[in-house]
Amino acid sequence: MRRLGLAALAALAVVALALYPLEGTGYGVRVMLQLFMWIALAQSWNLISGLTGYVSFGHVAFYGMGAYSTAIVIVRLGWPWLPAALLGGAMAMVLALVIGWPCLRLKGPYFAIAMLGLNEVLRVAASYFEGLTGGGLGLSLPTLHASVPIYYAMGLTAAGVTLLTYVILTSRFGLRLMTIREDEVAAEAMGIDTHRYKLYAFLLSAVAPGIVGGLSARDQGYIEPISVFPLLMTITMIVMVLFGGKGTIWGPVLGAVLLFTFQELVWARFIYLHQLLFGAIIVTVVLLMPRGILGVLQQKYNLPRTI
Amino acid sequence: MTIKPWRLPATLAVAAVLCGALPALAQTPIKIGASLSLTGTYAKLGSYQKEGYELCAEDLNKKGGLLGRKVEFAVYDDQSTPATGVRLYEKLITEDKVDAVMGPYSSPITEAVANVTEKYKKVMVSPLAATTSIFKKGRKYIFMVISPAEVYLEGLIDTAAKRGLKTVAIINEDTLFTKSAAIGTAELARKQGMQVVFQEAYPKGHTDFSALLTKIKAVNPDVIAAATYFDDAVAITRQMKELNVNPKMLGVTVGGDLPEFYDLLKQNAEYIYGATQWEGALPYPGQREFLEGYKRKFNREPVYHSASGYAGCLIYAEGVKRAGTLDADKVREQLLKLEIKTAFGEYKVDQDGFQTAHKMVILQWQDGKKVTVWPDELASGKARFPTPAWNQR
Questions:
Q1: Domain co-membership, B52 together with B193
Q2: Which of A16, A307, B94, B373 is the most exposed, having the fewest neighbouring CB atoms within 10 Å of its CB?
Q3: Neighbour-count burial of A189, counting CB atoms closer than 10 A to its CB (0-12 exposed, 13-18 middle, 19+ buried)
């Protein structure tokens, strides 16, 4: 009965979100579109870092990779935006394969630093290969007003990663990943090919950032190296997941919704206070509830792992 | 009838609000929206622009407002990111329903938000976007105020060519504005018959220029043109002294015009050429009024970002006055044919809203003061040429 109620509630939310662009203002659609983007990003970071414990400090690299791949095929080859964004996802996955293969053998802080470096390298590369990327001039996409279709694409991507997380968490694959997180040596001793499974998780966590990177590039109409590889974006993803509850299904969604809404409501009025509060949230979460909101609720009310 | 105790104050409050609102309703102010970078990378420059807007509104209101209505600015912070800027212009236009918009700070953000303002057919005068491509994409409602990046160093090249100098080395920070400036400078040099013997970019935030300067020293150019922001301009000058790289002329784009440039470099700033969109000392109409008003309101000297913001807003207001309405298409028509001189200099645009009349000026540091040396009609002194050795400055 409770399950049925939840399902009905979820269906209602989906219908409401699907119909929203008919009613909402241009601003409302943009806000929701960016909220979807953050959900997809936070959820993707959760896939690798929340599940396996491998902290990726450069996840925005996949976002930037997607943004550039998409923008390049749109500008140079005249592709329509949807296949272009999907290509962005694929390219991000290719990048994840190339980087993850060697780097996932690194442990702890070394992996985090390697990922941080990857982001910097890509930004410099985007500046350097001018012929392709426009270098410091950036890439200016032809004008197109497609906020509403992009809204749906973004929403589907966010829903897609969330569903993917559910599937993984309830599968043997998910169990293996969590074993790696808890004790990698023990996992290996039990016969789990840890490197292979980490790589799978890493590949899956790169797709959605690639796609949303592409969609954002198309929506904004202009990208430059600095604006698509910002470290701050990775940090925001991490904070959202930690705040909502890492390693859970709904934690990243909750974290993204709460923090993004908070940001949207507060920053316009108290621009300096807002940065201060953001910092305060990071410190509070790390000190008082390292497992995030859902983690705390899980413990207190004995909720199932697959929440 | 008994009045419940809470009702009385409530009724009074409603009455007070109504009384206050009634005269205002007859004359609702014209609300102009903008998002500016008040935090993040461009925080300082964005705030200067905001001051320009505020002063403009104040001056307009002193003279009876616009179309008989008061002018008010609604400004949000875009955190120096294009994505936030886009969202904010959507908010200003679709939720706050502002009567007009003005441009944000910087080229990248303008490039992104112009898609929104075009979609809703809002005229946007953009006082601080200097990149040509923004205005050459077939957009209809966007107007440029400052000179494009490409001509920033026109005066340096022009002066050099007239002195018979032959070779130039060009370096730039690798971002939209500085890169466009470097490309434009190279083109101008070639047009003047000079030879570009060296051209290279360095990444944003670069601090060690010794490798770059050593390479330049090897080709020994007559002129070094550097498309810079502030920090790199200072570092390049310092390291040129250390490595004793001594061209006959050294010019920088942004940074060389700021008083801090001299404060940090002292006598090493002497003889260096800077480029600027505007100087307080230039004889433009309304200049004195602007300088005095600014000093009174903000208690310091303005920089060109404030002047350009101020002038951009006045230009928009002039367009509205001539059109006699806020209607975007009619205002656009007026702004396209408007020719006006403000405290910021000349304004005239082509059919794309691209600025064609505004003049850059080149200045040189002489005995701790900025002296305008180009163009001739605005010059306040003669350029000191050639540059002596580093130990003789």
A1: no
A2: A16
A3: exposed
